[in-house]
Specification:
The chain has 368 residues and is α/β, with parallel strands linked by helices. Among the domains are: 132 residues, NAD(P)-binding Rossmann-like Domain (Rossmann fold, 3-Layer(aba) Sandwich); 88 residues, no CATH class. Helices cover 33% and strands 22% of the residues. The chain has a seven-stranded mixed beta sheet with strand order 8-7-13-14-15-12-16. It has a five-stranded parallel beta sheet with strand order 10-2-1-11-17, with helices on one face.
């Protein structure tokens, strides 16, 4: 008899397993249908010996000292501030948009925040209540920047025009009037020094946790005794899609190893308007991994959004939000089951937000 059957060994399931075992003295069976832990944060050494992120670049960032301190018990960190360029009209421009972006794209020489703010204001088409992703951008920086830097990327990423998506899609991307070219500005930005997979191995090392990889939860739910289920997979899958299938976006990755020390001008290059892929990432620039003279190599990942495949992102659109609310009501009315994580709650969370939610769920389960 296990106290908890936890489904999914990503951040949500693994943090809950660790807390329930170490802080509440509970026994946990953690099942994961993939052959590895870590969810989409899983990393490994490829055939060239390069540490790569199997499901695209994952940079940990948070403003929460509590979250960072908690994870620091399971890893040392490599401080790292992510930078991204976008290829537009033959130019390489910093994203998110800042003053350098504007100066390079339009051949200007704006020198102060005030001058840049005035540039945006002169082109913005203000919206009293931004409803769509298009509204959120056009209302801040105008239509030309929207068309050249946002619209194409968003359509590839989500398979829908920004006018069909919630304002939250683009509202979460900052627009800067200064020259700060960091992708994130959080107080804590880093990568696990030994990789994410090593972090998860330490998270799950408690003897009260039994881990079964390559195992579908439906194979064990009726055969392994347990008192409570924590489900971090797709909430509609749990209910057999009884209310209809929720939409998700997936990704396909193509990896390429080159015999050079550095292949890209930045750790990631976005392609909003050209190519079927949205971005290319170079992992050695993120991890700091280096090879000696005569052994130079680096691995790139090309990212192709698609509808089919492993669910990565809940689609932020009105019809999905309405269906998710119905599943949420069904989940709340289901005894003996707690739903958590990006897929279990159908919320577009960053890694630190998933950890924060898992810690909150743990406290609720412990107190109950």
């Amino acid at each position: 008899m296990f106290d908890y059957l936890i489904v999914g060994a990503g951040f949500a399931g693994s943090v809950l397993a660790e807390r329930l075992a170490s802080q509440a003295g509970k026994t946990v069976l953690l099942v994961e249908r993939r052959p590895h832990v870590g969810g989409n944060a899983y990393d490994f050494y490829d055939d060239a010996g390069v540490l790569v992120h199997r499901y695209g670049p994952h940079v940990f960032h948070t403003n929460s000292e509590r979250i960072f301190r908690y994870l620091s018990a399971f890893t040392d960190w490599r401080p790292y501030e992510h930078r991204v360029l976008a290829e537009v009209d033959g130019l390489l421009l910093p994203v998110p948009i800042n003053r350098t972006t504007v100066n390079r794209l339009y051949g200007l020489d704006l020198r102060t925040d005030a001058e840049c703010a005035a540039f945006f204001a002169a082109r913005a088409e203000p919206r009293a209540h931004p409803r769509t992703a298009e509204d959120a951008v056009v209302g801040r920086v105008g239509r030309d920047l929207y068309e050249r830097l946002f619209r194409g990327y968003t359509r590839k990423q989500w398979g829908r025009d920004p006018s069909e998506l919630d304002a939250s899609v683009t509202a979460r991307i900052p627009v800067r009037t200064n020259t700060d070219d960091r992708y994130f500005t959080d107080a804590f930005q880093a990568l696990p020094k030994g990789g994410y997979t090593a972090l998860f191995a330490r998270l799950l090392a408690h003897p009260a946790i039994e881990l079964r990889l390559g195992t579908d939860w439906r194979e064990v739910k009726d055969t392994v005794p347990h008192r409570h289920v924590v489900f971090t997979g797709p909430v509609d899958e749990f209910f057999g899609h009884s209310l209809g299938a929720l939409p998700y976006r997936s990704l396909r990755f193509a990896f390429e190893t080159r015999p050079v020390t550095r292949a890209l001008p930045a750790p990631a290059v976005n392609h909003p308007n050209e190519h079927a892929y949205t971005r290319v990432a170079e992992f050695t620039q993120m991890t700091g991994q280096a090879f000696g003279p005569g052994r130079e190599r680096t691995t790139l990942a090309y990212e192709y959004p698609q509808a089919a495949g492993e669910p990565y992102y809940p689609v932020p659109c009105p019809e999905a939000r309405a269906l998710a609310a119905r599943y949420r009501a069904l989940a709340e009315a289901t005894p003996g089951v707690t739903f958590a994580g990006r897929l279990g709650t159908y919320q577009y969370y960053n890694m630190d937000q998933v950890v924060a939610q898992a810690l909150t769920v743990f406290e609720r389960l412990r107190d109950a």
